[in-house]
């Protein structure tokens, strides 16, 4: 997901200068995927992934041919409550094992405005792969990060997933099938 977002951010900021495709790595310390869902109509419950990896290859000459790949260990999910985490990893939901991954690989980028793009890609989770679209906004792109001095970008994205699409629909519709996803990432080039 994140790589796709970065490609969109770069696509939005391309000035037309010709350059070879550039590689960016996600900053695991400043990239998060936050998800939320309605619990029985009483509350909105949140979870998060952080510390994941990804790469973006950005082609300024042809932003639509840029690419993004991201991978997150399923068991790195943070729920804020150990018993909820254990339930999510159980057979009621993911039936998770060490090494199970959630991956996103971009399949297309559509620039929609000066700082916006739609990034489409294949999301694989729980043994299922589905196409999803991320509504993406560029936060900032700098030639030199204030601390590292290297090229850096940051962006936000949103999407809504149906957990039933990925076989984790226990208790639906009482616990909402729709999962709201908010992504905020930073990516940069190595020094």
What would your notes on this structure say?
The protein is mainly beta. It has one domain: Lipocalin, CATH 2.40.128.110. It contains two helices and ten strands. The protein has helices spanning 2-13, 82-89, and strands spanning 22-26, 32-39, 43-50, 53-58, 67-73, 101-111, 116-125, 128-142, 152-162, 178-188. The chain has an eight-stranded antiparallel barrel.
Features of the shown structure:
single chain, 191 residues, mainly beta, eight-stranded antiparallel barrel, Lipocalin, 2 helices
Compact overview of the structure:
This protein has 191 residues and is mainly beta. It has two helices and ten strands; from the N terminus they run αβββββαβββββ. An eight-stranded antiparallel beta barrel has the order 1-4-5-6-7-8-9-10.
Q: What percent of residues adopt helix (DSSP H or I)?
A: 10-25%
Overall shape: it is elongated
- Largest sheet composition: 8 strands, antiparallel, barrel
Number of helices: 2
- The share of residues in extended strands comes to over 45%
- Give the terminus-to-terminus CA distance: 24 Å
Q: Return the average pLDDT rounded to an integer.
A: 88
Topology summary:
Elements: H1 2-13, E1 22-26, E2 32-39, E3 43-50, E4 53-58, E5 67-73, H2 82-89, E6 101-111, E7 116-125, E8 128-142, E9 152-162, E10 178-188
């Amino acid at each position: 997901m994140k790589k796709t977002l970065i490609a969109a951010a770069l696509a939005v900021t391309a000035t037309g200068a010709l350059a070879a495709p550039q590689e960016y790595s996600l900053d695991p310390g400043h990239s998060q995927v936050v998800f939320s869902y309605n619990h029985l109509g009483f509350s909105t419950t949140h979870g998060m992934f952080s510390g994941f990896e990804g790469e973006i290859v950005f082609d300024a000459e042809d932003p639509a041919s840029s690419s993004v790949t991201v991978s997150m260990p399923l068991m790195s999910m943070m729920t804020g409550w150990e018993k909820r985490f254990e339930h999510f990893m159980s057979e009621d939901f993911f039936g998770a094992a060490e090494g199970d991954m959630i991956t996103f690989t971009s399949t297309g980028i559509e620039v929609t405005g000066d700082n916006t793009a739609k990034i489409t890609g294949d999301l694989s989770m729980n043994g299922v792969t589905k196409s999803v679209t991320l509504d993406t906004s560029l936060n900032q792109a700098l030639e030199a990060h204030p601390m590292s001095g290297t090229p850096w970008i940051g962006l936000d994205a949103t999407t809504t997933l149906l957990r039933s699409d990925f076989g984790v629909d226990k208790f639906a519709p009482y616990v909402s099938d729709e999962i709201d996803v908010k992504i905020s990432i930073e990516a940069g080039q190595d020094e």
